[in-house]
């Protein structure tokens, strides 16, 4: 009976379908990392404190490793001198108390010592106070991170700059509830305009994973403003890099999300986002987001589906074949069952891709081979969906084939869709709806 159906189907396909041509589309090259100097802390890390991973070839963060090009100030705003101690006051009044303290002649080093002694810094933080010129006037600003001990780790970053021989409070950067006080990642002239940018991070930690809100603060001549469009807050376990791929002295910001640190999330892959400087707007704008290569079978399947949706049917077919045949790919929990289900779906998609390429004879032959290989298995339902697709394709081309496959999947969600989604592969991997399976 199946042989008769197959012969009838061949006749329908040959008579009733028109061929389509395929134009290959080149794929964008992956982003590669460029090593850059960054601060690192080799001290013991408190588990509760999220850290932003930074590549480094230095051992301990110092002003010299955080400030990219350390240029001594041409003059001093307030000369060091004898001064009263830092006033002990309510947390909300510390920005004013610190201002009075440094205007009275206290050095940044003295201020840092006092804040550490009063428990107003993040645990293991070695640089709560950093002097650096952010306004290109030859005078150092004083950048201070303070933590409210009553609601640790919340806090503020304060920037004091020099105006007419004394400091003034130029910027207050708060952290939200349950978010760590802002920390300095790097100070560097990112756009080659002769003025340093201040790259900061406000970190938070969920049950298993840390996140970071990274910002690029720049002096406008009147105030400090964030010049990063978009957000990094949704990238789990982030790693930040400043890159200069084209060697034009203008830095890009690359942030890699390394995934949720939970078994329930399932197999994961890195997400890489790149922000590049836009000379017209003066902002760093998001120019690319890519998924890193993965050795998980389900991720290769996702790549194949994405390639299929872009109309790159030949490349997609090769990826589906890799899902079926590559022994080196990893499976999640149940190796045999997962591979069998993903391979059956990939078999179906190879038939779809072959039909979309206009090779109707090849698509039908592949269906026949699939039918024989999956006979008497629990994956035979994918064969039945493939037949539904081909029958619809014979009547109304791509639209008819996909409509038939969508309808079949909707009637058999538990057998067709559930083995492909988060119920098997964890909540970091997408669920499939009927319309996702074709094209």
Question: How are the elements arranged and paired?
Answer:
Layout: H1 2-16, H2 63-66, H3 94-103, H4 108-117, E1 129-132, E2 141-147, E3 155-163, E4 166-174, E5 183-188, E6 197-205, E7 210-219, E8 224-226, E9 238-243, E10 252-257, E11 271-278, E12 283-291, H5 297-309, H6 313-325, H7 335-356, H8 360-373, H9 380-411, H10 413-416, H11 422-425
Antiparallel strand pairs: 1-2, 2-3, 3-4, 5-6, 6-7, 7-8, 9-10, 10-11, 11-12
Helix pairs in contact: 1-8, 1-9, 5-6, 5-7, 6-7, 7-8, 7-9, 8-9
Task: Please summarize what this structure is.
With 439 residues, this protein is α+β, with helices and mostly antiparallel strands. The protein is built from 11 helices and 12 strands.
Q: How helix-rich are the residues, as a percent range?
A: 25-40%
Low-confidence region ranges: 1-51, 53-61
Gross morphology: elongated
**The biggest beta sheet, please?**
4 strands, antiparallel
Order of adjacent strands in the largest pleated sheet: 1-2-3-4
Order of helices and strands: HHHHEEEEEEEEEEEEHHHHHHH
Class derived from helix and strand content: alpha+beta
Mean pLDDT: 87
Key terms:
11 helices; four-stranded antiparallel sheet; 439 residues; disordered N terminus; 20% strand; elongated; single chain; alpha+beta; Serine Threonine Protein Phosphatase 5, Tetratricopeptide repeat; 12 strands; 2 domains
